[in-house]
Amino acid sequence: MKNYETLNIRMTVYCALFTALIIVGGYISIPIPIGPVPIVLADFFVMLAGLFLGFKYAFISISLYLALGLIGLPVFAGGTSGLAVIFGPTGGFIIGYILMGVCIGFITTKMKVTIISLMIALIAGNILLYLAGVPWLKFNMKLSWPAAITIGFIPFTAGIVIKIAAAVALGYAFLPQFKQKMVFASFKQPDDGDE
Question: What is the pTM for the complete model shown?
């Protein structure tokens, strides 16, 4: 088997793994009393998908998560699913996962892995997530901008900081070796038995 085929199989496995982690993160859901948007860990695993998979495979992994929810599997926050969730108050955040993962993946593939570059990627990704989620929440629930920000962003700021810090730590510790391993696999010379 050629090395690029081995790499594609490996990345397919990683995509499935991160899709599963995002699903598990959605099940870890804590409702907050002031609004419909719960505290979840799904966004944390979307961040990690962007960091470790790059924008192409992060897009595939998160799109698979979205597709599973759309066909009725209970993968969204709290075990929900279906178009009703996408078109509901939290739908913008679910769509925003794709923007977040692709943004983080794109930045991390273009920049050297440093604490600063990881922070830039993760902050930019979170900005896109909330730029998608908060306006969707506002128009879906017919809220004022202050109300939408109050229930769709402010309660999550501490969690955002903690998740970014954790993702930076994991990325800084493991991403250089992970990238090196992927590059080595993709450029490794064929063995004598390879075609």
Answer: 0.91
